[in-house]
């Protein structure tokens, strides 16, 4: 009997360790809340702006959440605000209570992001009309009067990425072949991913209407082996540059690129920069990345809010004009892509800025329309 | 239809089948050994994940891919040892233990990864090593067979060798005999002096060893890095392959190959104009068809047995 109890206890410890591992943040959250209530008792000191960022997940994704955290760092450094980041972990049942706890504290500005939290976040904002809220990435238009929503013109940045891919596949770059085919590996066949796809296809077609686009979906965001398989097949079929829009699955695309000595394009953040230190050979094949500048967007919004110029209760779609999106023009881009092609890419970018090019957005499209666009360019 | 054949009848496709099958095959062989000893190890997924991370960490700190492989296999065996300790020593229910291992692995690997590299998503900041691929001297020059069978990852070859080793182990060695007898009737085995607990310990450790090889393949061959939850269900597919293979070595190897082929096919078919959702169901359709064929043949066998005395 004693042995059984010991076994049970040890198992409990193991499960606990697990829980902490996947959501180390949860502990953080509860302590945060404790501190807050303590702080809430005092009056906010010195008139410093108090900004909190709530992450619906954990930091360390080297992409979406980390970019938001960088934005918060900038807010702290440039605006001298008092900041705090709270990681809620992946367990959605903990999100709503966390939002409520934090809204009950003495924060002036509460920032969070993602379509998944939008509904909860809006409800929290409505319940706390004296606080200001910023949602740094959402597809939903409606917002309470004290909420500011942002989203990014992913279709436009993908258009530019598609243009770069099409330029690269026709170029004399060492790893480019004669076939006029470029590739796309997406996480899932969903509107958020297809927004990238439609922009990418249109950008490639803008450069040359004869360019074909091979499209694969992994059906999974955490399966890099699948990403690698799909990419190997595309590379084998004559594709020489693949656009990765597949989260963790996409890391397998870069492995395939290295194995086949072909090019890839990263997403969300400058993905070559992440790999550069440990695997320069692989990083040098990532010619550019389609970036959402979440950090700059957050800084800009908080700045405006401080000046009182931020228009609450609406959603802005950030584009090249607002410096909300861009492609990574790092050393690899400058060295690997020939100068004349860079000039052509700049030309396309300028036209996008001047609104001379109109890019379709898959977000509002019927599935059949996306299907038609996809099938029209299949190799 | 023509383009379909163009996709399947290529050496690239046949090559990719073996590549995709490897992790499933390793884990399925592990599941086979423990299952034959009458103890179902459902912690394969978790053990593979831990081993995948261990391989990356050990190889990046030691600078040697081989030491990394050793680390991965030891980690797999160790986790299986912990499972065995709880189940056999403390009589914890094996399913509960397996669930705990899987949950522990999913969160624990991320926790460890964060401690060592500061990342929670992937090991891109660790300079880990990969094991080599091997060209087989004479074979590689033979047309068709060469491009399919040569140039694979060393662990892929090891997985094929492992099939024969496991077959020999289970059917031709005293340990194999004991494993099977313990699995079929533990009381009978005990009555003739076989230590049931000891044999089940051995079986679980061996299953961890093979799952460890599968995990090492994921992060040190198939891919060159660890990402969170990267095993992505392959441990579970392996358990399914083992039971669909009716707990025989040959059956398990063949069903693993079937699952691998279905998965490879679902990847290859994406270049055709077939909806991606439909293609993604292929591995599962293959499972259902396999089970139906199995059930039908079993029922027929039974019917024949029932009928035969009447005929006489």
UniProtKB/TrEMBL annotation, chain A:
It comes from the Bacteria. PROSITE patterns: PROKAR_LIPOPROTEIN. Pfam families: Bmp. The keyword rRNA processing does not apply. It is found in: Cell membrane. Belongs to the BMP lipoprotein family. This is BMP family ABC transporter substrate-binding protein. It comes from Paenibacillus agri. The lineage of its organism: Bacteria, Bacillati, Bacillota, Bacilli, Bacillales.
Automatic annotation (TrEMBL), chain B:
The keyword Transmembrane applies. Its main location: membrane. Keywords: Cell membrane, Membrane, Transmembrane, Transmembrane helix. It holds the Pfam family BPD_transp_2. GO terms for molecular function: transmembrane transporter activity. It is a multi-pass membrane protein. GO terms for cellular component: plasma membrane. It is found in: Cell membrane. Coiled coil: none annotated. The keyword Lipoprotein does not apply. InterPro entries: ABC_transp_permease. The chain crosses the membrane at residues 13-32, 39-59, 65-88, 95-116, 154-170, 201-220, 278-297. This is ABC transporter permease. It comes from Paenibacillus agri.
């Amino acid at each position: 009997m004693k042995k059984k109890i010991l076994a049970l206890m040890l198992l409990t410890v193991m499960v606990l360790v697990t829980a902490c591992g996947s959501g180390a943040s949860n502990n953080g959250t509860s302590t945060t809340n404790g501190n807050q209530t303590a702080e809430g008792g005092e009056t906010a000191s010195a008139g410093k702006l108090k900004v909190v960022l709530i992450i619906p997940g954990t930091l360390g994704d080297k992409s979406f959440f980390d970019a938001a955290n960088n934005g918060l760092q900038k807010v702290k450094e440039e605006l001298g605000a008092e900041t705090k980041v709270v990681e809620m972990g992946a367990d959605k049942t903990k999100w709503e209570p966390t939002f409520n706890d934090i809204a009950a504290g003495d924060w002036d500005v509460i920032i969070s992001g993602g379509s998944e939290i939008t509904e909860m976040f809006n409800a929290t904002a409505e319940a706390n009309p004296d606080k200001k809220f910023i949602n740094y990435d959402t597809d939903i238009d409606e917002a309470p009067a004290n909420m500011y929503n942002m989203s990014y013109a992913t279709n436009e940045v993908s258009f530019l990425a598609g243009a770069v891919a099409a330029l690269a596949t026709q170029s004399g770059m060492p790893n480019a072949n004669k076939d006029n085919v470029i590739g796309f590996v997406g996480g899932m066949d969903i509107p958020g991913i297809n927004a990238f796809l439609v922009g990418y296809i249109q950008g490639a077609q803008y450069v040359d209407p004869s360019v074909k686009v091979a499209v694969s979906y992994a059906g999974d965001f955490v399966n890099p082996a699948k990403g690698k398989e799909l990419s190997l097949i595309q590379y084998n079929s004559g594709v020489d540059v693949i656009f990765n829009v597949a989260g963790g699955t996409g890391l397998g695309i870069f492995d395939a690129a290295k194995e086949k000595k072909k090019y890839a394009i990263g997403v969300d953040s400058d993905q070559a920069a992440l790999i550069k230190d440990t695997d320069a050979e692989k990083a040098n094949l990532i010619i550019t990345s389609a970036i959402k500048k979440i950090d700059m967007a957050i800084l800009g919004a908080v700045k405006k809010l401080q000046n009182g110029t931020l228009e609450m209760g609406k959603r802005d779609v950030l584009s090249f004009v607002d410096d909300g999106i861009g492609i990574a023009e790092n050393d690899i881009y400058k060295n690997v892509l020939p100068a004349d092609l860079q000039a052509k890419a700049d030309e396309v970018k300028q036209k996008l800025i001047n609104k001379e090019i109109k890019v379709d957005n898959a977000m509002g499209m019927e599935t059949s329309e996306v299907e038609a666009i996809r099938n029209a360019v299949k190799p | 239809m023509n383009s379909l054949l163009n996709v399947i009848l290529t050496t690239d496709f046949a090559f990719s089948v073996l590549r995709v099958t490897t992790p499933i095959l390793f884990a399925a062989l592990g599941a086979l050994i423990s299952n034959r000893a009458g103890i179902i190890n459902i912690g394969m997924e978790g053990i593979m994940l831990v081993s995948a991370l261990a391989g990356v960490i050990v190889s990046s700190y030691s600078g040697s891919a081989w030491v990394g492989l050793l680390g991965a296999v030891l980690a797999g065996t160790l986790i299986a040892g912990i499972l065995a300790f709880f189940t056999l020593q403390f009589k914890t229910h094996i399913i509960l233990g397996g669930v705990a291992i899987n949950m522990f692995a999913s969160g624990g690997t991320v926790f460890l990864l964060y401690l060592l590299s500061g990342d929670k998503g992937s090991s891109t900041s660790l300079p880990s090593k990969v094991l080599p691929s091997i060209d087989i001297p004479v074979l590689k020059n033979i047309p068709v067979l060469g491009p399919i069978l040569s140039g694979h990852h060393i662990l892929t070859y090891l997985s094929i060798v492992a099939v024969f080793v496991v077959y020999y182990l289970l059917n031709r060695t005293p340990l194999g005999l004991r494993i099977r007898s313990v699995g079929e009737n533990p009381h009978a085995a005990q009555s003739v002096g076989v230590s049931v607990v000891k044999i089940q310990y051995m079986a679980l450790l061996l299953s961890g060893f093979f799952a460890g090889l599968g995990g090492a393949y994921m992060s040190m061959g198939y891919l060159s890095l660890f990402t969170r939850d990267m095993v992505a269900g392959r441990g579970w597919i392996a358990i399914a392959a083992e039971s669909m293979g009716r707990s025989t070595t040959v059956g398990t190897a063949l069903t693993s190959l079937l699952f691998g082929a279905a998965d490879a096919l679902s990847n290859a078919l994406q270049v055709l104009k077939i909806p991606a959702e439909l293609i993604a169901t292929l591995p599962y359709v293959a499972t259902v068809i396999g089970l139906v064929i199995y059930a039908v043949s079993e029922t027929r066998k039974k019917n024949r047995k029932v009928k035969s005395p009447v005929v006489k």
